[in-house]
Amino acid sequence: MDLPVMPPVKPMLAKSVKKIPPGMQYEAKWDGFRAVVHRDGPELVIGSRTGKPLTRYFPELAEALAERLPERCVVDGEIVIAHDGRLDFDRLTERIHPAASRVRMLAETTPARFVAFDLLALGDESLLDTPLHERRAALERMFAGIGAPVHLAPATRDAALAAHWFERYEGAGLDGVIAKPLDLPYRPDARLMYKIKHERTADVVVAGYRFHKSGPVVGSLLLGLYDDGGTLQHVGVCAAFTAARRAQLVEELEPLRMDPPTGHPWAAWTDEAAHEGARLPGAPSRWSGKKDLSWVALRPERVCEVGYDHMEGDRFRHTAQFKRWRPDRTPESCGYAQLEEPVSYDLSEVFGQGPGVPPH
């Protein structure tokens, strides 16, 4: 491979802001695997956000990209999987599997898509120093007539339309809006764009914690919500405490500690079969590897309020943020019913395959 921008490339990133800034290019924030695609004739590499190749995990995309992209180019985008009209991150993570036979089967049953939103090189020309608005124009020309499963991400300069996308696209599984300065050059691994994500709060049960890697202090609190059947389901964690607060939490939560955890609703977490019928902490995962997933069980008697952006099925998609303790709430009152349900939205419209597609 001999391209003006060679792999691996760590993609340009975004920093969080509260409001949609004016005077920029706006795009939906896709919930998938960030990927930079390098193609040089018959050679094609799909690189991850960290620079590691993803090519072997998405053979159907490698084939489609080789058929549809120009002979020599470097494209930044997102790998996603759509299911029942929404993006499905859980099905996407299933594709990172060591068995080639499993990958091939999933490529047929849950095929992925690639959504392009930036162009880093074309032919013999590097576009890293080219302003965004010129890169976008070149990308649109390049994608004229390209069909599924390769898509051009919708983009607009209308802040009002971007605000509409922010509200409507969440129902299709997207998780916010990205704002990009029009004259922005492409700078790998630099946070020069802006992301605006949904912010919500929920009251959750604190039923355990994990130690921090630095020592015997709290690293993260394990959170639960009661389902309709009255079972406490593990929904995620909250973290990002200061060093002093981590030590304080160990002392504060000591009266609730259950050792052994007999009678705890998640006591069976070490039994792999138990994870099939309930959401428990420490579920086996290809992502965790040899990571220590052990945790300290607490009597599920304390409630806290956390901030979160959106749900992935029955759990928080990202790490939640601790807001405050809620001594006025009973654990039994912390159920899924309190969570805001986004309005449903047809994902085919976001992909540009249906009516109501927003203009670029």
UniProtKB/TrEMBL annotation:
Enzyme class, one word?
Answer: ligase
Q: Which GO terms describe its molecular function?
A: ligase activity
Reactions mediated catalytically: ATP + (deoxyribonucleotide)n-3'-hydroxyl + 5'-phospho-(deoxyribonucleotide)m = (deoxyribonucleotide)n+m + AMP + diphosphate
Highest taxon of the lineage: Bacteria
Key words of the record: Ligase
Q: Which CDD domains match?
A: Adenylation_DNA_ligase_LigC, OBF_DNA_ligase_LigC
Documented EC number(s)? 6.5.1.1
Supply the Pfam families for this chain. DNA_ligase_A_C, DNA_ligase_A_M
The UniProt similarity line reads: Belongs to the ATP-dependent DNA ligase family.
Supply the name of the protein.
Answer: DNA ligase (ATP)
- What is the source species? Streptomyces gulbargensis
Taxonomy of origin reads: Bacteria, Bacillati, Actinomycetota, Actinomycetes, Kitasatosporales
